[in-house]
Amino acid sequence: MEGNRRWVTNELQHPDRDPTRRELLATGQQPYAAVLSCIDSRVPPELVFDTGLGDLFVMRSGGTALGPVVTGSVEYGPMTSGTPLIVVLGHQRCGAVAAAYKALRDDEPLPGNLQAITHALRPAYEQAVRERSADPIETMARAQVKLTANALRGNRDLAPLVAKGDLAVVSAYYSLDTGQVEILNGAPA
User: Fold this and answer.
1) Start-end of H helices in 14-158
2) What is the percent of the chain with per-residue pLDDT over 70, rounded to a whole number?
3) Which CATH number do you get for residue 58?
4) What is the pTM of this model?
5) 125 located within any domain
6) Spatial distance between the Cα atoms of 128 and 139, rounded to a whole number of angstroms
7) Which domain holds residue 57?
8) Is residue 130 a part of any domain in this protein?
């Protein structure tokens, strides 16, 4: 979050991005967090959190949708190198969420494998419909990151790490307008 404050205030440090750091990491890595974010080109986690080489495991999927490969990728850090933090990062005006919302509302499937994203986002859509908010797409986007974080917290392999306090799984939301990341739930006490 300190890196995000630097991002918002344009006091970037661009840490750990030099040849010395690259050489240090050539034989191994110990990232302090894994970030699952949307594929949106406006939300690159390494920049949003002002991090450097070796600081983050980063996975990206449309609307932070989970599937076996994405879940396995998120599990990798905590299960192999003790990475203590997972951040599920959604964002404002998410195109994947908007497309899924429209497809579900209009009962018109998206083409190709995009329909898999729609299927994965259905629980967030249903929650947004129940809430009847003024901006159902933003409600759906926020619901999606919370649902994804909850699913990871309850994952059979990650849940024991969470229960022991060795892993925190946080849902967060990025504002395209301000650049600020807001923690939604799961922050360690």
Assistant:
1) 19-25, 45-48, 68-81, 95-106, 114-131, 136-153
2) 99
3) 3.40.1050.10
4) 0.94
5) no
6) 6
7) 2-93+149-185
8) no
